[in-house]
Amino acid sequence: MKKGWLIYSIEDSFLNASYIAWFKEEAAKQFLELELVIREELTIGVKDNKKFANIHKEPSELPDFAVVRTIDPMLNLHLESMGIAVFNSSNIARICNDKALAHHHANLLQLPMVDTIYSKREHISDTPPLPYPFIVKEAGGRGGRRVFYIEDQISWLKCQTNLQTNIIIQSCEVQLGKDLRVFIVGKEVVAAVLRESSTDFRANYKLGGSASLYPLNPTETALVQKLVDHFEFGMVGIDFLVGLDGQLLFNEIEDVVGSRTLSATSDINILEKYIRLIKTRIT
User: Is 202 in the same domain as 274?
Assistant: First the structure.
C-alpha cells in the first residue's frame, strides 16, 4: 500500500480536523495510507551532505507522496528533491503563493486582469501609483487577509504602516464584494462557485459572504482552460474578479485551497477526485 504524508501546521490541523478526517477516509477507500504530519514537528535540511526529513527530530521512513496543506514552497521543493511526489508541486506552490508572480504568469497567457502594480514595501511613496480608490494586497496573503481598500490619502498612509512584505496595488474598477472561485483537480474543471458579500469589498466565504454554484459559459470555460493547460495542478482554486461589464478578470490561484463553499453548494466529492488523481500520478 502506498503511503503519504498529509502536512498541516499545528494551528490549521485543529481548525481543519474534520477535513483531515475526510482526507484520510477518501485515501483509505482508494487503498492509500495517509498520515497526518505536523509541520512544526518536521525538520528538513542537509546533514553530512545528504538531504533529510525528520519527524520529532528522528529519522523517519519517507512516504511515497506528500500532500502539503501549509504554505511552504521550500518544503515542497525539498521533499521533491528526495524523490517524493508532492501535491501541489513546488513550482505551483512557488507561483501561486506569490500574487505578483501569479499575475505575471496569467499575463503571459493573455488573461484579462485589472491594472496591477508590483512593488516592494520599501519602494512605495506618499504619492500613490493609481487614482483612488484602489486595493492593496500583500503578495503572500490569503483568505482575504492583508487586503486593504484605499479610498483617500489618509487610508493610503495608514495602510503603509501595516504592510510587512512585497505587495500588489490594483485598480478596483470591478464589482466589489463579488468573485468567482473555480475548483480544479488536475486537468478537470470541477465546478465554479460565485461568492458575494453585501457588507464587505471582499467576497470571501469565511468573512461572511454567501456562495452559489455558478455555470461557466463557453467563453469563461476557455479562459479557465488556458491556466489548466499551462500548469500541472494537483488541486487548486482559481479566483476571478467580476468586471463592471460582467467579464471575468484574473485575481489569484489558491494553492492550499479549501472546499467549504463547494461542499455548501453541491454534493461534489472533490477529495475523492483529488485522491484518485494522486493515486494515478504515483502509480
Answer: yes
Helix (H, G, I), strand (E, B) or coil at 161: helix
Instruction: Return mean pLDDT, the chain.
Output: 93
Looking at the fold, whether 273 and 198 belong to one and the same domain comes out as yes
- Per the model's pLDDT, the better-predicted residue between 120 and 75 turns out to be 75
The CATH number linked to 133 is 3.30.1490
Q: Which string of DSSP letters, residue by residue, matches 168-215?
A: EEEE--EEEEEEEEEEEETTEEEEEEEEE-SS-S---GGGT-EEEEEP
Q: How far is CA 268 from CA 90, 95, 108, 212, 236, in A?
A: 27, 27, 32, 13, 15
> Residue 208 has what pLDDT?
56
User: How crowded is the C-beta side of 51, counted as CA atoms within 13 Å?
Assistant: 11
The tens digit of pLDDT for each residue in 5-37 reads 999 999 999 999 999 999 999 999 999 999 999
Instruction: Answer yes or no: are the C-beta atoms of 60 and 35 closer than 8 Å.
Output: no
Q: Which residues contact 31 (CB under 8 A, 6 or more apart)?
A: 1, 2
Query: Quick count: other Cβ atoms within 10 Å of Cβ 51?
Result: 13
Domain residues for the domain of 233 are 174-282
What is the rounded CA–CA span in Å between residue 186 and residue 188?
6
Q: Specify if 103 maps to a domain.
A: no
Instruction: Report the DSSP beta bridge partners of residue 252.
Output: 239
- On the CB side of 197, CA atoms within 13 Å amount to 16
pLDDT for 134-182, tens place per residue? 999 999 887 777 789 999 999 998 888 878 788 999 999 999 989 999 9
DSSP 8-state class, residue 124: -
pLDDT in tens, 190-214: 999 999 887 566 555 455 578 999 9
